[in-house]
Automatic annotation (TrEMBL):
<dbReference type="GO" id="GO:0005829">
    <property type="term" value="C:cytosol"/>
</dbReference>
<keyword id="KW-0808">Transferase</keyword>
<feature type="compositionally biased region" description="Basic and acidic residues">
    <location>
        <begin position="59"/>
        <end position="84"/>
    </location>
</feature>
<dbReference type="GO" id="GO:0003723">
    <property type="term" value="F:RNA binding"/>
</dbReference>
<comment type="similarity">
    <text>Belongs to the class IV-like SAM-binding methyltransferase superfamily. RNA methyltransferase TrmH family.</text>
</comment>
<protein>
    <submittedName>
        <fullName>23S rRNA (Guanosine2251-2'-O)-methyltransferase</fullName>
    </submittedName>
</protein>
<dbReference type="InterPro" id="IPR001537">
    <property type="entry name" value="SpoU_MeTrfase"/>
</dbReference>
<feature type="compositionally biased region" description="Basic residues">
    <location>
        <begin position="1"/>
        <end position="10"/>
    </location>
</feature>
<dbReference type="GO" id="GO:0006396">
    <property type="term" value="P:RNA processing"/>
</dbReference>
<feature type="compositionally biased region" description="Basic and acidic residues">
    <location>
        <begin position="27"/>
        <end position="52"/>
    </location>
</feature>
<dbReference type="Pfam" id="PF08032">
    <property type="entry name" value="SpoU_sub_bind"/>
</dbReference>
<feature type="region of interest" description="Disordered">
    <location>
        <begin position="1"/>
        <end position="90"/>
    </location>
</feature>
<dbReference type="InterPro" id="IPR029026">
    <property type="entry name" value="tRNA_m1G_MTases_N"/>
</dbReference>
<dbReference type="InterPro" id="IPR029064">
    <property type="entry name" value="Ribosomal_eL30-like_sf"/>
</dbReference>
<keyword id="KW-0489">Methyltransferase</keyword>
<dbReference type="GO" id="GO:0008173">
    <property type="term" value="F:RNA methyltransferase activity"/>
</dbReference>
<dbReference type="InterPro" id="IPR004441">
    <property type="entry name" value="rRNA_MeTrfase_TrmH"/>
</dbReference>
Length: 327
């Protein structure tokens, strides 16, 4: 458009542009207004694709870059990913029960703009009574912290458990001692139940390996019903090595397995210091652990039942030992 020419003076309809400014040139390029709706439709499709999460790739120097790489000039506040390695109890009921059980916690975390109800209000009240910090974070950050999205907008971050060194556990045990070792028990509820039974039947400590075994998480704390605060628990790098150290301290090592050589009723070790090793419900004792045991016992059951839960089997053996020692 020439300078000084108003918009209303433009010719309507199809527009013609001639090269060299001559209107009579044979080479003409026509642009019709009919093509405009198609262009708008393309924009509309792009907007609909954007809502669905599709983005066209962007290339810089023939290199396609991702969407995240295009945000360098726009700072974004993100939650510290290290929080995902923390142990946390999530869910309204679980958090309230954990606070009631006085599980050692670091802070109470609540999602921003979470809907306040009776459970969340009670959790906040219990946290304030326990002098726990209360933090509000975005829901996405809470997803990262708990590892899943079904947290109901609330989580309780648990303190790392204070394990006892195995050498100190043996040194502080009474004589004759009774130690419980767990071999490949991956369910934290089983671990918590074993700790609870160990405290009930007078065991001197529980030993767990670092790998391929449950640790003292918030779920294990909850299942122990507070017994974890009174029972020494040792986490060792090698369960076989702990068996060798226990033998040097005068312990008789007893393995508990469904395929045991001796029935529990025939085990007469009331006067001995014993180290009871419990295998998993499905696989039983591992090969190396079984070879290191002085005796492998089994609990007689009816043929219709294949095996017992690890925590139940451990409680039966500890009751047998404590009953023999009480005579």
């Amino acid at each position: 458009m020439k300078p000084g020419r108003s918009r209303k003076d433009r010719p309507k309809g199809a527009k013609s542009f001639a090269r060299g400014g001559k209107s009579g040139s044979n080479k003409r390029v026509e642009r019709s207004a009919v093509a405009r709706p198609e262009k708008r439709d393309n924009h509309r499709d792009e907007r609909s694709d954007a809502r669905k999460g599709f983005r066209k790739p962007v290339k810089v120097n023939d290199r396609e870059i991702k969407r995240e790489d295009r945000r360098g000039d726009r700072p974004e506040k993100r939650f510290d990913r290290r929080g995902s390695t923390q142990d946390a109890v999530a869910g309204k009921n679980s958090v309230v029960e954990a606070l009631r059980a006085k599980i050692p916690a670091k802070e109470l975390v609540i999602a921003i703009k979470v809907e306040m109800d009776e459970k969340i209000s009670e959790a906040i009240r219990l946290a304030k009574n326990a002098d726990l910090p209360i933090k509000e974070i975005p829901r996405r950050a809470l997803d990262d912290l708990t590892g899943f999205s079904n947290h109901q907008g609330i989580a309780l971050v648990i303190k790392p458990f204070n394990y006892t060194e195995f050498s100190k556990l043996i040194a502080s045990a009474k004589k004759p001692m009774m130690l419980i070792g767990l071999d490949s028990i991956t369910d934290p509820h089983n671990l918590g139940a074993v700790v609870r039974s160990a405290a009930a039947f007078g065991a001197d400590g529980v030993v767990i390996p670092e790998r391929r075994n449950a640790a003292m998480t918030g779920s294990a704390w909850k299942a122990s019903a507070g017994a974890a605060a009174r029972m020494p628990i040792s986490q060792v790098t090698n369960l076989v090595r702990s068996i060798e150290d226990a033998k040097k301290a005068g312990c008789f090592v007893v393995g508990l397995d469904a395929q045991g050589d001796v029935e529990l009723a025939k085990m007469n070790l009331a006067s001995e210091s014993i180290y009871i090793i419990v295998g998993s419900e499905g696989k039983g004792l591992s090969r190396l652990v079984r070879e290191k045991c002085d005796l492998v016992v089994s609990i007689p059951m009816q043929s219709s039942v294949e095996s017992l839960n690890a925590s139940v089997a451990t409680a039966i053996v500890m009751y047998q030992v404590s009953a023999e020692r009480g005579k």
